[in-house]
Amino acid sequence: MDSQDFDELYYQYSNKVYSYIFLLVRSKEVSEEITQDTFYKVYINFNSLQNDASIYPWLIKIARNNVYDYFRKQKTKRLLKLKLFNSPDLNEVELPPDILIKEEKTRMLYEAIGKLPIKSQEILILRKIKGFSIKEVASILNVNEDKVKNTTKRAIESLKKEYLKGGDWDEFTRIG
């Protein structure tokens, strides 16, 4: 991979990778560092990309592995706690507008997601927020497609129960 190809790849995907990482770690500085490390690994390992593999899921898989490495190093027992709207770094971070909507019902949604088990949170982030297909999520997480489907369904049902405690389900159905 030459530097021009890498620059184009970085320009096209760096914000998407960064926003995914930020959703997991909730720190601007850590997200920037992990994003940089992700693209370093992409540059070094680009030849290992399968010809039939899509680049974006491959990038997210590398980013996810880097996030796991970060949490292991930090000896964090719980990988994901989505308290996105309580993050002190939130005002300094530019996330895609479809993710960052400052309405109360969206805050409730993220709080409800944060109460789910870690694997459910991760699958919902990849499927419903980042827009990956079932097949892509299964590949990124190294699970079968049925696991992704079943976990998504159970997670949405759990969110529905949680959301009904304090809101109107009709506003919430856009995630399902």
Q: What is this structure's SSE topology?
A:
Layout lengths: L2 H23 L2 H18 L9 H19 L30 H11 L3 H12 L4 H8 L3 H20 L4 H4 L4
Organism: Robertmurraya yapensis (ex Hitch et al 2024)
Protein name: RNA polymerase sigma factor
Rg over C-alpha atoms, rounded to the nearest angstrom: 16 Å
Shape: globular
What CATH calls the topology of the largest domain is Rna Polymerase Sigma Factor, Chain: A
Largest sheet at a glance? none
Total helical segments: 8
Ends: how far apart?
39 Å
Poorly predicted runs? 76-88, 94-102
- Share of residues in strands: under 5%
Arithmetic mean pLDDT: 76
Order of secondary-structure elements? HHHHHHHH
The assembly state of the depicted protein chains is single chain
CATH C-level class of the largest domain is Mainly Alpha
Helical content (DSSP H or I, runs of 4+): 55-70%
- How many domains, in number, for the residues? 2
The CATH superfamily of the largest domain turns out to be RNA polymerase sigma factor, region 2, helix turn helix motif
| Helical/strand content category | mainly alpha
- CATH 2nd-level architecture of the largest domain: Orthogonal Bundle
Give an overview in words.
By secondary structure, the chain is mainly alpha-helical. It folds into 2 domains: 1-81, Rna Polymerase Sigma Factor, Chain: A, CATH 1.10.1740.10; 101-176, Arc Repressor Mutant, subunit A (Orthogonal Bundle), CATH 1.10.10. The protein is 65% helix and 0% strand. It has 8 helices and no strands. The protein has helices at 3-25, 28-45, 55-73, 104-114, 118-129, 134-141, 145-164, 169-172. α1 (3-25) packs across α3 (55-73), α4 crosses α7 (145-164) and α6 (134-141) crosses α7 (145-164). The protein is globular, with a radius of gyration of 16 Å. The relative contact order is 0.11. Residues 76-88 and 94-102 have low confidence and may be disordered.
